[in-house]
Amino acid sequence: MSTVNVKEEAMRLIEKLPEDMTWEDLMHEIYVRQSIEAGLADSEAGRVTDVAEVRSKFGLDS
């Protein structure tokens, strides 16, 4: 994954939010963005588990 300028990305994210946003709205958006980036990094690094394996582990039908 390419290096991201966090300050620039945060400013873009804030600009997209509505004028009446709350601090909670902002924190949620930052959390979601960070979670997605962490998931993509895990995927690129091969830290993944097959869906069938997870379903089996929890006793769910395939």
**Average pLDDT level:** 93
Percentage of helical residues?
Answer: 55-70%
Shape: elongated
Q: How many β-strand runs?
A: 0
Give the low-pLDDT segments: none
Count of individual helical segments: 3
The CA-CA distance between the termini, in Å, is: 32 Å
The fraction of residues in strands falls at under 5%
Order of helices and strands: HHH
Give a short account of the largest sheet. Answer: none
The secondary structure category is mainly alpha
Question: What is the CA-based Rg, rounded?
Answer: 17 Å
If you had to describe this structure to a student in words, what would you say it looks like?
The protein is mainly alpha-helical and 62 residues long. Helix content is 65%, strand content 0%. The protein has 3 helices and no strands. The protein has helices at residues 6-16, 23-44, 51-57. The protein is elongated. The mean pLDDT is 93.
Question: What are the defining features of this structure?
Answer:
single chain, 62 residues, mainly alpha, 65% helix, elongated
What is shown here, in short?
With 62 residues, the protein is an all-alpha fold. The protein has three helices and no strands.
List the helices and strands and how they pair.
Layout: H1 6-16, H2 23-44, H3 51-57
